[in-house]
Amino acid sequence: MASIIKVDQIETDVNLTGSASAPSLYPMNDTNTGVFFPAADTVAISTGGTERLRVNSSGNLVVTGTTSLSNVTVSGTVTGTYTLGGTPTIASPTITGTTSFPDGSASAPSIFRASDTNTGVFFPAADTLAASTGGSERMRIDSSGNFQFNSGYGSVATAFGCRAWVNFNGQGTVAIRASGNVSSITDNGEGTYTVNLSTAMPDTNYCGLYTPGNGNEATFYTGLDIISSSAAKVINFNGSARVDALFNCVAFFR
Amino acid sequence: MNQRIIYPTDEGGVAVIVPAPECGLTIEQIAAKDVPAGKPYQIVDVADIPSDRTFRNAWEYQA
Questions:
Q1: What is the mean pLDDT of each run of 10 residues along chain A (254 residues)?
Q2: A113, A115, A116, A121 alpha-carbon torsion, rounded to 10°
Q3: pTM of the predicted model, to two decimals?
Q4: A95/chain B closest Cα distance in angstroms
Q5: A182 and B13: CB-CB below 8 Å?
Q6: Distance between terminal CA atoms of chain A?
Q7: Which of A90, A178, A181, B5 has the maximum number of C-beta atoms within 10 A of its C-beta?
Q8: Which residues of A179-191 are buried (b: 16+ CB within 10 A; e: fewer)?
Q9: What phi and psi, each to the nearest 5 degrees, are found at residue B16?
Q10: Using the 8-state DSSP alphabet, how is residue B34 labeled?
Q11: CA A69, CA A137: separation in Å to the nearest integer?
Q12: pLDDT tens, residue by residue, A178-205
């Protein structure tokens, strides 16, 4: 038999405020699931006695929680595939899947700092990553893996890095002051050393620079002999004999 | 690293390997990597290496 409810009965039974555990509007036999009105100009939905969703007086949507941080506030996990249009601001998200961005450009990078929309990261071509500051491209990693930057050079160009370097004392107790990608030096005798690289060069076509000095003397003759992809010999010669230098600096480029 | 690796050179002298502190390798790993293949070598304390290099080219390796 169908039930007939009078309008005046609804007006009497509805609790215009309600709560999460006792919502104003609820289905039969499930009194803790429904719609309620927790504040002025605010509507909320609860299930199982717990508030799940709210639209507050500012029109902001709040999912799982009661405090609105922005137009849409979600406290918890959002799963699935979403497309965010416009310029969304997402506070402290934890993303467990992948996130994609549009290509962007130097003047309008797709990932940027809030309130600084012309400084950030963009994707100028396939397999290419770039970054800009002040609307101008400053660095790029191209599809071949080349690292390019513009640091007073005038335009973005490939940067050829120093692959290894060492600064050592060749007098008294020979010792390395500091180094990078160098496993050791070999003291072969007066004024003659071999620099051994931790990670070898790809071939023997690299460039090595050697500058010995004693602080106030810089008139030595020097030589650098590339032995292999992982070692080069340096020689310090004063015109008549090989001599030890106080400061020996060697760098390798490729 | 207060150790050195020594080995005889082909000219009858002695080569002294000075490990790079920042390289992250042990002295044994450096010896295996940087001592020429087939050369005998010894790991010694840095204090065992003369600091007077006046006659550096006359140093000899003793097994």
A1: 53 70 91 93 94 89 73 72 71 79 95 92 97 95 93 84 95 96 97 96 94 68 89 89 92 94
A2: 30
A3: 0.68
A4: 35
A5: no
A6: 89
A7: B5
A8: bbbbbbbbbbbbb
A9: -120, 120
A10: H
A11: 34
A12: 999 999 999 999 999 999 999 999 999 9
Chain B residues bordering chain A (beta-carbon distance below 8 Å): 5, 9, 13, 15-25, 30, 33-34, 46, 49, 51-53, 56-57
Interface of A with B (CB under 8 A): 166, 168, 171-176, 178-180, 182-190, 194, 196, 198, 231, 244
* Contact criterion met (CB below 8 Å) for A59 and A48: no
In single-letter form, the type of residue at position A11 comes to E
Give the length of chain A.
254
**Which of B26, B53, B61 is the best mutation test for A, with the most CBs of A within 10 A?**
B53
**Amino acid at position B62, single letter:** Q
